[in-house]
Hints:
It is a single chain. This protein has helices at residues 2-16, 23-30, 34-40, 44-68, 74-91, 93-101, 103-106, 110-130, 138-159, 163-181. The protein is an all-alpha fold. 30% of the residues are buried. It has ten helices and no strands.
Amino acid sequence: MTEELLEGAARVLARDGAAAFTTNRVAEAAGVSIGSLYQYYPNKVSLLLALHERDAEQVWGKLAGVLDDETLPPRARLDAAIQGFFDAEIAGDELHAALAEAQALISATPAFQEFESQVIEKLRAFLEKSLPHRRDEHEYLARVCFAVVTATGERAAVRRLDSAQTRELGAATARMMCDFLGV
């Protein structure tokens, strides 16, 4: 049942945007009663958070694997991970745009903050291996990288850039971060 609810929520969010996203619309789109929906998700923020978590787990699972691939040099891994993030923005364009619009509702939740901490920790570990000479800066650099890449990607989603523009922005962001970090 939860998957049907999340699919309905994704359709409503992509079609109507964050401002018009309601639990009643989600229940209707999923073909269930509002009472059934509330058994799993007590409010629209919990639905939005579940959508974000599902999407983020899919995207981050791929990107974490790229960062861990030590057969490639650090610059190639970081470049591929950043461009992979932007490719994910293209693939889920309407949903990602709507999730970016809903960011204010979900970013203060403990689950979202935990996910963000996990991503930053993964970036910090990557930088620790890739830039041992910048030992005192790993945490700071990971936070900067996360902030720049996610803000730029979310902005591309909200502005609904086309695929070519998003890829160009992803490549530019990857070059900028690789140069900034010195990888």
